[in-house]
UniProtKB/TrEMBL annotation:
Key word Transferase present: yes
EC number: 2.3.1.-
Domain (N-acetyltransferase): residue spans on this chain: 2-152
Molecular function via GO: acyltransferase activity
Origin superkingdom: Bacteria
Leading EC class: transferase
PROSITE patterns associated with the record: GNAT (PS51186)
Record's keyword terms, sorted: Acyltransferase, Transferase
UniProt name for this protein: GNAT family N-acetyltransferase
Pfam family, one: Acetyltransf_1
PANTHER family per the UniProt record, alphabetical: ACYL-COA N-ACYLTRANSFERASES (NAT) SUPERFAMILY PROTEIN (PTHR47542:SF2)
Length: 162
């Protein structure tokens, strides 16, 4: 059984290590980026640990008040515990919390060839909003996906009018 807790700055080293294993070098966030995310960014990082306190995964989330969106910066699960529903659970936690707090949507970017992540996001209801050519480098296209957390005001008005 894994446990979830909020990341602290002293988790930096192990997070960067797992990031290097989970993403190709041209895509992986470096130490500096993670330092910023853990110390200054508005948002939070959730960590998954096993019973020996080994890092088994993380999800980093930023809050963009101006856009009324939560933005998932990165998500990765250690290969030893993949396909056991842990990424889905972390995302469900973010979605439920976002709804409770009244956020409009959750947004993320995903590489077109990511055959593990695309079905995960689709099954949770994320839909493509924008194509991002060469987003991860030349020929490495991506899509921006969005999950609305609130109904658009127009459809709420239309329903109330019936
Ligand atoms: C993508 C990733 C986070 C998925 O983590 P996970 O904990 O293994 O995913 P889950 O067990 O929660 O899977 C939930 C659903 O996602 C889909 N999925 C996950 N892994 C899959 C795979 N290898 N092949 C096909 N579908 C997959 C399935 O629909 C799955 O549901 P199911 O097991 O009931 O069929 C993990 O593979 C990973 O860390 N990959 C490397 C980093 C990465 O690409 N991160 C995403 C960046 S956008």
């Amino acid at each position: 059984m894994l446990t979830v807790r909020a990341a602290r700055l002293d988790d930096l080293g192990v997070i960067v290590k797992l990031e290097r294993y989970c993403f190709p070098p041209e895509v992986a966030f470096g130490r500096q980026r993670w330092h910023y995310l853990l110390s200054h960014a508005k948002g939070r990082t959730l960590l998954l640990h096993d019973d020996r306190e080994q890092l088994m995964g993380y999800l980093c989330l930023l809050e963009h008040k101006g856009w009324d969106r939560l933005v998932i910066q990165t998500l990765a699960i250690h290969w030893r515990v993949r396909r056991q529903g842990w990424a889905r659970r972390l995302l469900e936690q973010v979605i439920a919390h976002g709804r409770e707090q009244g956020w409009g949507a959750v947004r993320l970017e995903v590489a077109d060839g990511n055959e593990e992540a695309l079905p995960l996001y689709r099954r949770l209801g994320f839909r493509a909003q924008q194509r991002l050519p060469d987003y991860y480098g030349r020929g490495q296209h991506a899509h921006r996906l969005v999950l609305a957390l609130r109904e658009p005001a127009a459809s709420v008005r239309a329903r109330k009018a019936v």
